[in-house]
Amino acid sequence: MSEEYVIITCRHCQTQNRLLKDKAIKNIKTTICGKCRENIFIGDDEPYYEISSGAYEHPLDRSALNALKKVPGTGTVLKMIIKETVERYHRILFMQNYIKVTPMHMPFIHNMATHATRILDIEEVPQVFIYQNPYPNAFTAGVDKPYIGISTSLIDLLSEEELLGVIAHELGHIQCGHVLYKTAARIIYQVMEVVGNLIGVGRLAFFAIVQALYYWDRCSELSADRAEVIVTKSFTTSIYTTMKLASGSQKIMKMLDMDEFLKQGEEARKMKEENFFNSLFVTMQSQSTTHPFPVWRAGHLKEWVYDGNYLDILQGKYLKRSEEGDPDKDFREGDFKKSEDEPGLIDSFKKLLGLD
Ligand SMILES: [Zn+2]
Ligand SMILES: [Zn+2]
Question: Which of 61, 108, 255, 353 supports an S-S bond with 67, CB 3.0-4.6 Å?
Answer without folding.
Answer: 353
